[in-house]
Design brief:
The complex is a heterotrimer of chains A (160), B (597) and C (592). Chain A is an alpha+beta fold and 160 residues long. In chain A, 42% of the residues lie in helices and 14% in strands. Chain A contains seven helices and five strands, in the order E-H-H-H-H-E-H-H-E-E-E-H. Chain A has a four-stranded mixed sheet, covered by helices on one side. In chain A, helix 1 packs across helix 3 and helix 2 packs antiparallel against helix 3. Chain B has five domains: 103 residues, Glutaredoxin (3-Layer(aba) Sandwich); 211 residues, NADH-ubiquinone oxidoreductase 51kDa subunit (Rossmann fold), CATH 3.40.50.11540; 84 residues, Ubiquitin-like (UB roll) (Roll), CATH 3.10.20.600; 89 residues, Up-down Bundle (de novo design (two linked rop proteins)), CATH 1.20.1440.230; 57 residues, Alpha-Beta Plaits, CATH 3.30.70. Chain B has 24 helices and 20 strands. The radius of gyration of chain B is 27 Å and the shape is globular. The mean pLDDT of chain B is 92. Chain C is α/β, with parallel strands linked by helices. Chain C folds into three domains: 97 residues, Ubiquitin-like (UB roll); 98 residues, Alpha-Beta Plaits, CATH 3.30.70.20; 360 residues, 3-Layer(aba) Sandwich (Rossmann fold), CATH 3.40.50.1780. Chain C contains 18 helices and 23 strands. Classes of the chains: A alpha+beta (160), B alpha/beta (597), C alpha/beta (592). Chains in contact: A-B, A-C, B-C. Strand 1 of chain A pairs parallel with strand 23 of chain C, so a sheet runs across the interface.
Chain lengths: 160, 597, 592
């Protein structure tokens, strides 16, 4: 059996260790630490989890257990323009699923995937609290309301 | 608000925010500055007004003019017409759906008439990022009263006497909960606010946090004093960035004013609040799961007892209430238990906030006295069904609730009546469904949610719900048999009877209530292989309209399974036994010659 | 203590406050079925996630059925355990569980000893409705040197996770994913081999289904036995002889040493030897090292590290190499008995019978799964030829015997072969917690004091508490002994060693709760700690029955030193019987 080698740049390791320290290296702050790391790196690959494991003294298996439990955490980088379609009930009854299908078709990817050029990634979420605008689509920080399947092409064109 | 003679309140709730309310604020400010009015008219970004359907909303004070569906480019008109010339901009006013007459004052709109705002009392009236505005509306007066005039036991008695029940779902008495936490002796206790709203279609907590964050801080401090805790934690969804930012601002301001921190009001009472972020797990709304999540663990529920009041966060006595529950507390303290308990029904006191959405004219956030009927909510406040369609049902309690129908329209809404009707209050989502909604598909939709959100710890929820979802899928595809209905029912009852936590125990509710209320629709899917609402794709039939078909063969060429036959210039035919219902033919046809039966 | 009065199935019972319904029912002779719950009472181990929901019962006045494993009795409670509602719920939940479980019972390694299979049988499940449409949760299989993970068979009882984290503090396993795809796995679903697993095998020992099983080496052994060019030598660990009988329906704690020997001979092994012989050898090597370090320490030599830690348990060695590499010079350098045996068999004994080591195959029968990994360690081989070729567990041996049509119950007792089959009582008790250090004390006392030890039974070192300590009087020199079984308990003692606060001169550690008798390769205890206790009692009985009970009195050990090794800790002994440890801690490497 050999060492498990984790390769990270020094500044990345320092950043993660710094986050852990800022939460007093308290294992109970794991989720807040993961939030900070994901905000900084965009995702939580194995290497980052290993460093958090060392920083908080939590077995890395447990950290992976937490990362895979919560839908907010991801181990794959999101696209440059992450697209989220709200599938909350209000959006659903107003046709969000058809909008989602249209995005899948246009981008040629499934939920949870990114386009080959990593420009777009597709995810679904449950209720962003903008039910008045249902169905709602988020691209990055921008919200699109009352989206119909026909609007999908135009929305994507904005990011060409 | 003294310096200014006029205020423009712009809704900064998520819905309006998404619809460019920031740009409206910007443009209004620019306009005012250009006209030299920036010293006399103030533009304030507020929390949610509730009337999301008509957002973004701009309200002019003091004359109470309520502009709806405002666009950034309307800023100039509002300033020039209303502010300078004193003329209301009629084109931006709400129009009564019946009389078509413009209505300027929100008090006269059907949407607001029947509402009574306690939890939402400040939403849309104050700038949530300015503590002075909260204080100006009696903010922190309840905390002052409690700390200077009341013993903890008196506070608990008052809350108990008010009859308030937790607004998070189960409806447990707030006062009793506090009493249990107080009774357990410990060196440290915790006050937790559950702001992990995850019900698809519910956004009341979010709106309170965004519109009136201080009310939560104040209530938590009151709770802390009552149970003997000096630490508060708000467990909030990370997907609520605006609410998080406003809470952070509010906590900072409250600390600066000495309303949080050490020695509050010089009484020696210390109370601090920190934020803990959720990370997208519906089950974390369950209090034991929430506590585990705050402890950095997987949000899996554990069996109660022990209740959090005995052993909660870090093993210490912990009181968990949700946002809406806390939001009413300061009002209850100031106005008294008798006032609160005079509102509502015998066993459900006060008001309840609902997020009204779906096939309804007035989507939005409403607060009504307990006991208001569904009819009043849907047809008066909600303005009835969109596009003149027929009302079919209303799902209350989200994925944990049930679907109420025509026959329940005159039932007064309260905790017990909803349970008796086969649904539940839940967090307060109300999704209105019309004749186009397939109830088998709706049941399947809710089960899909539960399957995705099940933590997986107990077998009935982990596997049972998956099986329910699969079986509903079979029925939607026309592959069901009549005995499936008994199986659905048995599985549902067993899951309810055996699942570990509230999520699992309530997850089959949509199935049971759909089966009870719309059995015919299930039978239509199974026996007649028809979806009466025309939603289930597999049960649709694509038919060529002989009158329109010119025999261009375009449809036949695009059909991926060669289900369409017909010679050039002859009427085509679709073999429904081969057809996979992909819809490509209909999309391709330029002559509207293909329709769905 | 407060007493609670309740009624279960119309029978009244008084129980102490805090008793669960399930335990109260058991007092009444009502055995409520359960899948996830497991308790090893004497070892203080309990798994109570209340997740399987099989043990539910009706409690009057409650809306839902109550999981009896984790619902405490209350005064006046009226419980019904077999109403139509309960039975229907139990059956339906069982159908749910089975609907997401492979139906390959016939060829499953756990068949016949599977708790899920037993439950399906007990509940009389004959059909799984809707199975044709049911999706199943499937995962990648993983084979490590010791353990096979087949998570398609996981029912999420969480016992393995509890063992790995709460008891062993290894933390290699965790629940992962959510909902239907939730299961238990190492980080990133990587192979166990790349995780922090120590191969202690406690996850396998508690798994109710075929999700976690041992790597089967019987086919390799069979091939070696069939190869006429090979001389096949077998050694059996002390804990095997008191557990093997269970696989043949004998009561736990039945000593089957003679029958086992006969069976091994019947299987075709050329030489049937005893690991106990090597255990005696271990005592001489480790005991000498202890006395050497202790006297140097007492004479003020600061380079002599005290305490000395035992090193005969390979799970434990893996543990400190991964978690306490900074202390790797603290444990004794003595190899484990399995490896000492292999080294001697393939040198001294091979020479004696004139067989090239390459033509000799050494097989060990072990209560342990970490031994499978240990014998594959590079440092335990000569030019690529391992000292021990194959290590098979007690369970594998039982299966092998059955396959060979041998009825162990009718076999006549036979003796081990000479010379590597001779042993003393001291070596027998190696198989239980406290046994190694007791054996060491018997020898070290006499060597150190030069006096005869009057009282051989150091009862103060025995027992099942997780951490124990005792001070043994070496004729005026008080020697502080620490004992830990279960790696979580070992961690506590190691933390003290690391911080310099440990008061012990010598510490015995065994990775498995109870010691080797509770090893990961033993017949399954199914949550009954009486089984482990009975095995311990049997080992002490076997010790008492031996004419010689001190390792240094083993005449064949004496002869081995005379003929071959010269004296304990000699250069030759060091070369063959001692090892060194590695830093296997996970390292974060900075990329430049």
């Amino acid at each position: 059996m050999s060492h498990i080698k984790i390769e990270l740049r020094k500044e990345d390791v320092d950043f993660i260790k710094g986050v852990c320290t800022s939460f007093n290296n308290d294992p109970q702050e794991l989720i807040n630490v993961l939030h900070s790391c994901q905000e900084h790196f965009g995702y939580l690959p194995a290497e980052i989890q290993e460093v958090v494991s060392e920083g908080l003294n939590v077995p890395v298996a447990k950290i992976y257990g937490v990362v895979t439990f919560y839908s907010f955490f991801t181990m794959t980088p999101r696209g440059l323009h992450p697209i989220s379609i709200c599938l909350g009930t209000a959006c659903y009854v107003r046709g969000a699923e058809k909008v989602l299908d249209e995005f899948k078709k246009e981008l040629g990817i499934q939920v949870g995937e990114s386009t080959k050029d990593n420009k777009f990634s597709l995810s679904s979420l449950r209720c962003v609290g903008a039910c008045g605008l249902a169905p709602v689509v988020l691209v990055g920080d921008k919200t699109y309301g009352r989206v119909a399947p026909d609007d999908v092409k135009n929305i994507l064109r904005e990011y060409e | 608000m003294s310096k200014y003679s006029m205020h423009l309140l712009v809704c900064g709730g998520t819905g309006c925010h998404a619809a460019e309310s920031d740009a409206i604020v910007c443009n209004l400010r620019d306009e005012l500055e250009a006209k030299g009015l920036n010293e006399t008219v103030q533009v304030i970004l507020t929390g949610c007004f509730g009337f999301c359907e008509k957002g973004p909303i701009v309200k002019v004070m003091p004359d109470n003019t309520f502009y709806v569906q405002v666009k950034p480019e309307d800023a100039q008109t509002i300033v020039e017409e209303h502010i300078i010339k004193g003329r209301k901009v009629t084109s931006l006013l709400y129009r009564d759906p019946k009389t078509k007459e413009p209505v300027a004052d929100s008090k006269h709109m059907g949407f607001f008439k029947k509402q009574m705002r306690i939890a939402l009392r400040n939403c849309g009236f104050i700038n949530p990022e300015n503590i002075d505005e909260y204080i100006a509306r009696d903010g922190y007066a309840a905390l002052g009263k409690v700390l200077s005039e009341m013993t903890p036991d008196e506070v608990i008695k008052l809350v108990k006497d008010s009859g308030q029940r937790g607004r998070g779902g189960a409806g447990f008495s707030t006062g009793l909960k506090w009493e249990l936490a107080r009774r357990n002796v410990s060196d440290e206790k915790y006050v937790v606010c559950n702001a992990d709203e995850g019900d698809p279609g519910a956004f009341m907590d979010r709106s309170v946090l965004e519109g009136d964050p201080h009310s939560i801080l104040e209530a938590m401090a009151i709770c802390g004093y009552s149970i003997g805790a000096s630490n508060g934690l708000i467990y909030i969804r990370a997907e609520y960035p605006l609410a998080i930012q406003r809470l952070k601002t509010a906590i900072k301001q409250a600390k600066e004013y000495g309303l949080l921190g050490n020695d509050i009001f010089g009484t020696g009472f210390n109370f601090d609040i920190t934020l803990k972020y959720g990370a997208g797990a519906f089950v974390c709304g369950e209090e034991t799961a929430l506590i585990h999540s705050m402890e950095g663990l997987r949000g899996e529920p554990t069996l109660k007892p022990p209740f959090p009041a005995e052993s909660g966060y870090r093993g210490k006595p912990t009181n968990v209430n949700n946002v809406e529950t806390y939001a009413s507390i300061p009002a209850i303290i100031l106005k008294g238990a008798a006032w609160f308990s005079s509102i509502g029904t015998e066993k459900s006191k006060g008001t309840k906030v609902f997020a009204l959405a779906g096939k309804i004219n007035n989507v939005g956030l409403i607060e009504v006295p307990m006991g208001t009927t569904l009819r009043e909510v849907i047809f008066e406040i909600g303005g009835g069904i969109r596009n003149g369609k027929k009302f079919k049902g209303v799902q209350t309690g989200g994925p944990s609730g049930g679907c109420l129908t025509e026959k329940h329209l005159d039932t007064p809404i309260d905790f017990d009546n909803l349970i008796a009707a086969g649904s539940m209050m839940g967090s307060g989502a109300m999704i209105v469904l019309d004749e186009d909604d397939c109830m088998v598909s709706m049941a399947k939709y809710f089960l899909e949610f539960t399957v995705e959100e099940s933590c997986g710890k107990c077998a009935p929820c982990r596997i049972g719900n998956k099986r329910l979802h699969e079986l509903l899928g079979q029925i939607c595809e026309g592959k069901g048999v009549l005995s499936d209905l008994d199986r659905l029912k048995n599985m549902s009852l067993v899951i309810k009877d055996t699942a570990l936590c509230g999520l699992g125990q309530t997850s089959p509710n949509p199935v049971l209530s759909m089966l009870d209320n719309f059995r015919d629709e299930f039978i239509a899917h199974i026996t007649h292989k028809k979806c009466p609402a025309g939603q289930c794709r597999s049960l649709l039939e694509y038919i060529v309209n002989a009158e329109n078909c010119v025999g261009c063969t375009a449809c036949a060429r695009v059909c991926p399974v060669n289900a369409i036959s017909g010679m050039r210039k002859e009427i085509h035919k679709i073999d429904s036994a081969i057809c996979i219902k992909c819809g490509a033919c209909m999309e391709k046809c330029k002559f509207d010659a293909i329709y769905i039966s | 203590m407060e007493t609670i009065k309740l009624t279960i199935d119309n029978k009244e019972i008084d129980v102490p406050k805090g008793t669960t319904i399930q335990k109260a029912a058991r007092e009444l002779g009502i055995e409520i079925p359960t899948l996830c719950y497991m308790e090893l009472h004497d070892l203080g181990i309990e798994n109570k996630p209340a997740g399987c929901r099989i043990c539910v019962a009706e409690v009057q006045g409650r809306r839902n059925l109550a999981p009896t494993c984790s619902t405490n009795c209350e005064n006046g409670m009226v419980v019904k355990t077999h109403t139509p509602r309960v039975l229907n719920a139990r059956r339906t939940v069982m159908e749910f569980i089975l609907s997401d479980h492979p139906k390959d019972c016939l060829i499953c390694p756990k068949s016949g000893d599977c708790e899920l299979q037993t439950m399906a049988h007990r509940l009389g499940i004959r059909d799984i409705p809707g199975q044709e449409f049911a999706a199943t949760s499937t995962y990648r299989k993983d084979t490590s040197p010791s353990i096979i993970r087949d998570l398609d068979k996981c029912i999420l009882c969480r016992r393995c996770e509890m063992m790995c984290n709460d008891v062993q503090t290894v933390g290699a396993l965790s629940a992962i994913n959510r909902g239907f795809m939730a299961t238990v796995a190492p980080a990133f679903e990587q192979n166990l081999e790349h995780s922090t697993c120590t191969y202690c095998g406690q996850c396998v020992a508690v798994c109710p289904t075929g999700a976690l099983t041992e790597v089967n080496h019987v086919p390799s052994v069979l091939r070696a036995l069939a190869d006429p060019t090979k001389t096949v030598v077998v050694q059996t660990a002390p804990a095997v002889r008191v557990a093997l009988g269970e696989e043949f329906g004998l009561a736990p704690g039945t000593i089957v040493t003679g029958k086992m020997t006969a069976a091994l001979r019947a299987l075709g092994f050329d030489y049937v030897f005893d690991t106990d012989f090597a255990a005696d050898l271990t005592i001489l090597e480790e005991g000498t090292e202890l006395l050497d370090r202790l006297s140097r320490h007492l004479n003020g030599d600061t380079t002599a590290r005290i305490p000395i830690l035992t090193s005969c348990c390979p799970g434990w060695v893996n543990f400190f190499e991964k978690y306490f590499p900074d202390l790797k010079d603290v444990p004794s350098t003595a190899k484990s008995p399995q490896q000492m045996f292999g080294a001697i068999a393939k040198s001294y004994f091979a020479e004696k019978i004139g067989v090239n080591r390459k033509d000799m195959v050494v097989v060990s029968i072990m209560p342990c799964l970490a031994k499978k990994y240990e014998c594959q360690r590079e440092e335990f081989s000569v030019d690529g030829n391992p000292d021990v070729d194959y290590s098979i567990s007690t369970r594998e041996l039982a299966a092998f015997i059955k396959q060979a049509n041998i009825d162990i119950k009718t076999l006549h007792d036979e003796d081990f072969d000479s010379p590597l089959g001779e042993s003393t009582g001291a070596s027998v008790i190696f198989g239980t917690t406290g046994g190694v250090i007791e054996a060491a004390c018997r020898t070290a006392y006499e060597v150190y004091t030069g006096k005869k030890l009057e009282r051989l039974d150091f009862t103060e070192l025995r027992g099942m508490e997780g951490v124990r300590s005792a001070t043994i009087d070496f004729n005026g020199l008080p020697v502080n002994i620490g004992i830990a079984h279960g790696l979580g308990n070992a961690r506590k003692l190691l933390d003290d060693v690391r911080s310099g606060t440990s008061q012990f001169h010598a510490i015995e550690v065994m990775a498995c709760p109870g010691g080797c008798i509770g090893g990961g390769g033993q017949p399954l205890h199914h949550g009954n700690s009486d089984v482990i206790r009975a095995r311990a009692a049997a080992l002490y009985a076997e010790d008492r029955s031996k004419p010689l009970r001190k390792s240094h009195e083993n005449p064949f050990i004496v002869k081995l030193y005379e003929e071959f090794l010269e004296k304990p800790n000699s250069e030759k002994a060091h070369h063959l019987l001692h090892t060194h440890y590695f830093d296997k801690q996970k390292k974060i490497i900075i990329k430049h």
